[in-house]
Specification:
heterodimer, A: alpha+beta, 2 domains, 7-stranded antiparallel sheet, 18 helices, 57% helix, 7% strand, globular, B: mainly alpha, elongated
C-alpha cells in the first residue's frame, strides 16, 4: 500500500513538473493579464486621457443621442450604447456600418457629443482580451489555449497538494537566506497555499464562462443542436430577423428604458438600472430596442435582466430574466467578472492575482534551479525553458510597461503602413516581448537582473510621460478627483521600486560549469 | 461601522494566523528561543479568532461577498504572519509572551 502511495505521489510529481514546464508561460501570461484586467477601466482612463472625467449621476437622453447619429449609422442594423458609471464615465457608442465594420466612439456624458480620444485599445481593448484569448482569434484557438492552461492549473493545484508532504508544518515557512533552490520552493509553496481557494476559483470560473466554446455540443443538445437557440434561452439574445426595407420612425427609447427599469425594479424589489441600450435594425419597421442589466454593483451574482421592445410601437416583445440554470452559475461567473462595486475586495483580488503570478513564476524557477550545477543545464531543452521562463515572466512585464510607454509617446494619428495608432501600441507590446526572449536566450541567467532594470526604467518612464503629456501626476490627479490615474501611477512607481530592488539583489544563480572537453578517440 | 467591521476582520484573521503559527514549535522557537513550549491555547485561540473574522466579514458583506473576501483576507493575514516570522520574528514576542510556559 505504501508502495502504491509512493507511486501515486511520483506520478503526481511527474504531472506537476511537466504540466508546469510546458504550460507555465501561458498560465503566467493569463494570470498577469487577468490581474491587470481587475483594473482594466482604470488603465483605460490612464491610456485615454480624454476620458478622465469625474462621474456624476445624470439623466441621459438616448432619444437625443439617436437624433444626432452619423449618416452611416442611421440605417445600421446594430447600434449600441454603454451606460456610463463611476469606472467608465463616458457613454460608449458603437455601430455596425453598411460594410459590416464597427465604429467605436466615446461620447461626452454631459453634452452627448463625440470626444476626440486617443486611439488606444488600452485595458479593455487589449489587456482584457489578451487575458482570455491571448488575442489569437483564429478558430477560437486562443480561447482553447487559455482553457487548456486553466484546466492544467486545476490539475497542478491538486497534484501540488498531493506532492507537498508538509502542508501543515511548513504552512508559514519562508527561508530566503537558505540556498536559492530552497528559498524558491518555500516561496512557491507559501504563495500556493495562501491563495489556494482563489487559485481554484479563477480557472474553474473561467472554464465555466467559456463553456459555450469548450462544450458547445452538450449545451446545444437540448435545443436540437442549435447553439444560437441555446444562447437565446440562457442569455436572452434576440434576433429581429432581416430588415424589411420599409422605413419607420423609432418610438421613444427613453420611455422604453423607463418601462424596462420599472419592470426589473418591481421584480427585484430594489432599483435596477440598465447597463446597455441596443437598437437593432434602426430606421426599419423591424427595429427592436434591447436593454440589459448584467452587472449589479451591490452583489456578486450577475443579474442579466433583458427587455426587448418593438422599436416602432414601444411594446414589450420579450421580458427575459435568467432561467434557473443561469442562476446556478451566476455567482461563479460574477466572481470571475468582478464588476461589483466592492473596492477592498477588488484590491484583495489584485493581491491574490499577483500571488498567483509569484506561484507560477517560482514553480518554473524551481525547475530551473534544481538543474543548476548539473550538466543538464547545458542541454538545448534546459536553455529553451530558461529563455522561455525569463521572457515569460519578466519579459511580459517589460512588454506591458512598453505598451504604456508607447501609448504616451506615439503622436495622435500615428500610422505605419496600414496600421493605426492603436495597432502600433499593440505591435510595440509584441515586439518588445519577443525581444526579451532573444535577450534571455543570449544572456541566460544574467538576463534576470537586466530585465528587472528594464522594468524599473520603463515603469518610471511611463509615470514621467503621463505627468509630462497630461499634467496629471499623482498629486494633481488626486486633487482633480482622478483616482484611477493616481492609482495606476502609484502601482507603476511601486513596480519600478520593486524591480530595481530585485535587480540589485539578483545574481546569476551560479557560475557556469566548465563545458566538458571533447576527446578524440584515436 | 462598515470600515470598522473590515478592519476588525483583518485584525482578527491576522492575529489568528499569527497564533496558529506560534502554536507550532518551529515558529515558537524562532520567536521565543528554545526552552519553552507554546501549549494548546494559541492554537485554540487562533482558530477562534479566524472564526470571528469570518463572522465579522459576513456581517459586513453578507455570504455572497464574504465567500470571496474572507479566504483572500485569511491569505493576506497569513502572508503578514509569514513575513513577520521571516524578517521580524521579534514583533511577535509580545503576543507569544502571553502563552509561554
Amino acid at each position: 500500500m505504501a508502495q502504491f502511495g509512493d507511486g501515486f505521489r511520483q506520478a503526481m510529481h511527474w504531472t506537476h513538473t511537466w504540466l508546469g514546464v510546458v504550460l507555465g508561460i501561458v498560465m503566467f501570461a493569463v494570470f498577469w493579464m487577468g490581474t491587470l484586467t481587475i483594473f482594466a477601466p482604470e488603465i483605460d482612463r490612464w491610456m485615454i486621457p480624454e476620458t478622465r472625467i469625474v462621474h456624476a449621476k445624470r439623466e441621459i437622453s438616448y432619444d437625443l443621442l439617436l437624433s444626432r447619429l452619423p449618416p452611416d449609422a442611421a440605417s445600421s442594423d446594430y447600434i449600441n450604447f454603454v451606460v456610463p458609471d463611476e469606472r467608465r464615465p463616458t457613454i460608449g457608442f458603437s455601430y455596425r456600418g453598411a460594410d459590416g465594420t464597427f465604429s467605436d466612439h466615446e461620447l461626452d456624458p454631459v453634452t452627448g457629443r463625440p470626444l476626440a480620444v486617443t486611439d488606444s485599445r488600452a485595458g479593455t481593448g487589449f489587456i482584457y482580451p489578451f487575458h482570455l484569448s491571448l488575442t489569437i482569434e483564429w478558430q477560437n484557438l486562443g480561447e482553447w489555449i487559455v482553457g487548456l492552461a486553466a484546466l492544467a492549473m486545476l490539475i497542478l493545484l491538486i497534484s501540488g497538494l498531493v506532492i507537498h508532504r508538509k502542508v501543515v508544518t511548513e504552512f508559514f515557512v519562508f527561508r530566503p537566506r537558505r540556498k536559492a533552490r530552497r528559498a524558491t520552493l518555500d516561496l512557491h509553496n507559501l504563495s500556493s497555499l495562501l491563495g489556494l481557494p482563489f487559485y481554484f476559483l479563477m480557472p474553474f470560473s473561467g472554464l465555466l464562462i467559456f463553456a459555450f466554446v469548450y462544450l458547445p455540443w452538450g449545451i446545444a443538445e437540448p435545443f436540437g443542436g442549435d447553439l444560437a437557440k441555446a444562447a437565446a434561452a440562457i442569455s436572452g439574445d434576440y434576433d429581429p430577423g432581416a430588415r424589411t426595407g420599409r422605413a419607420a420612425t423609432l418610438a421613444s427609447v427613453d420611455a422604453m428604458k423607463r418601462e424596462a427599469e420599472a419592470m426589473w425594479s418591481a421584480a427585484e424589489g430594489v432599483p435596477v438600472e440598465t447597463n446597455l441600450v441596443r437598437i437593432l435594425n434602426h430606421g426599419d419597421d423591424s427595429a427592436v430596442v434591447y436593454f440589459r442589466n448584467t452587472f449589479p454593483r451591490d452583489r456578486v451574482v450577475l443579474s442579466e435582466y433583458v427587455a426587448v421592445f418593438n422599436g416602432n410601437t414601444g411594446q414589450v416583445l420579450q421580458d427575459f430574466a435568467k432561467p434557473p440554470i443561469g442562476h446556478a452559475s451566476s455567482w461563479v461567473q460574477g466572481a470571475h467578472f468582478m464588476q461589483f462595486g466592492h473596492w477592498p475586495l477588488r484590491w484583495l483580488y489584485f493581491i491574490g492575482g499577483l500571488g498567483g503570478c509569484v506561484m507560477i513564476a517560482t514553480g518554473m524557477l524551481f525547475w530551473l534551479s534544481s538543474r543548476e550545477g548539473k550538466l543538464a543545464r547545458f542541454s538545448p531543452g534546459h536553455r529553451t525553458v530558461e529563455a522561455l521562463t525569463i521572457g515569460g515572466v519578466t519579459g511580459i512585464i517589460i512588454a506591458t510597461c512598453a505598451f504604456l510607454v508607447a501609448n504616451r509617446l506615439l503622436p495622435p494619428g500615428a500610422t505605419l503602413w496600414a496600421d493605426t495608432r492603436a495597432e502600433l501600441e499593440v505591435h510595440a507590446f509584441w515586439l518588445v516581448w519577443f525581444a526579451t526572449f532573444l535577450h534571455a536566450a543570449s544572456l541566460r541567467a544574467q538576463a534576470w537582473a537586466q530585465q528587472c532594470w528594464a522594468i524599473a526604467i520603463l515603469a518610471a518612464t511611463a509615470v514621467t510621460l503621463n505627468a509630462v503629456t497630461t499634467g496629471e501626476h499623482v498629486t494633481a490627479a488626486l486633487s482633480d478627483g482622478y483616482l484611477a490615474v493616481a492609482g495606476v501611477d502609484t502601482v507603476l512607481v511601486i513596480t519600478a521600486g520593486a524591480a530595481a530592488w530585485s535587480a540589485l539583489k539578483l545574481r546569476p544563480a551560479s557560475k557556469p560549469l566548465p563545458v566538458p572537453a571533447a576527446h578524440t578517440v584515436e | 461601522m462598515s470600515a470598522a467591521l473590515l478592519v476588525g476582520a483583518m485584525l482578527a484573521v491576522t492575529l489568528g494566523t499569527a497564533l496558529l503559527a506560534l502554536s507550532q514549535q518551529r515558529h515558537w522557537n524562532a520567536v521565543m528561543g528554545t526552552g519553552s513550549k507554546p501549549g494548546n491555547l494559541p492554537q485554540r485561540l487562533g482558530w477562534l479568532l479566524i472564526s470571528v473574522s469570518l463572522v465579522l466579514t459576513i456581517l459586513r458583506d453578507g455570504g455572497s461577498f464574504g465567500a470571496l473576501s474572507w479566504p483572500l483576507q485569511a491569505g493576506f493575514g497569513a502572508l503578514l504572519t509569514s513575513g513577520a516570522l521571516t524578517w521580524m520574528p521579534g514583533v511577535m514576542k509580545p503576543l507569544a509572551r502571553w502563552f509561554g510556559r
